[in-house]
Design goal:
This protein is an alpha/beta fold and 106 residues long. It is 39% helix and 19% strand. The protein has helices spanning 30-42, 60-68, 84-91, 94-104, and strands spanning 18-24, 48-55, 72-76.
């Protein structure tokens, strides 16, 4: 299978910053890995902060994508059985806060 084409070129300054939560409770199938990786890399340069979230699953693919995209990987051990405070504590990381501050100056 051939990966889908990259999106048309866009001007990052024309777009508002976005926090993108990529949630999964399991690994992608091997046939989905490259298209997933391609989609993440095609968005490089856009004002998107990726937070890859493993719900009760520690995903090697999500960890790799987080490293490749200078993003965040969050492993929620308790998945959906987590308090709002604990969820926010794990999702609102120093890396995200620094990204938000950088976006305010653009």
């Amino acid at each position: 299978d051939t990966p889908p084409p990259a999106p048309a070129a866009v001007n990052p300054s024309d777009h508002d910053p976005v926090l993108m939560l990529f949630l999964t409770d399991g690994d992608c199938s091997y046939s989905d890995r490259e298209p997933t990786r391609h989609a993440i890399h095609a968005a490089a340069g856009l004002p998107i902060f990726w937070s890859f979230v493993g719900l009760e699953h520690d995903s090697d693919l999500l960890r790799q994508l987080a490293e490749e995209a200078d993003a965040e990987f969050v492993h929620l051990f308790d998945g959906v059985r987590i308090s709002d405070d604990d969820l926010y504590r794990q999702l609102i990381t120093p890396k995200l806060i620094n990204w938000i501050k950088a976006q305010q100056g653009r």
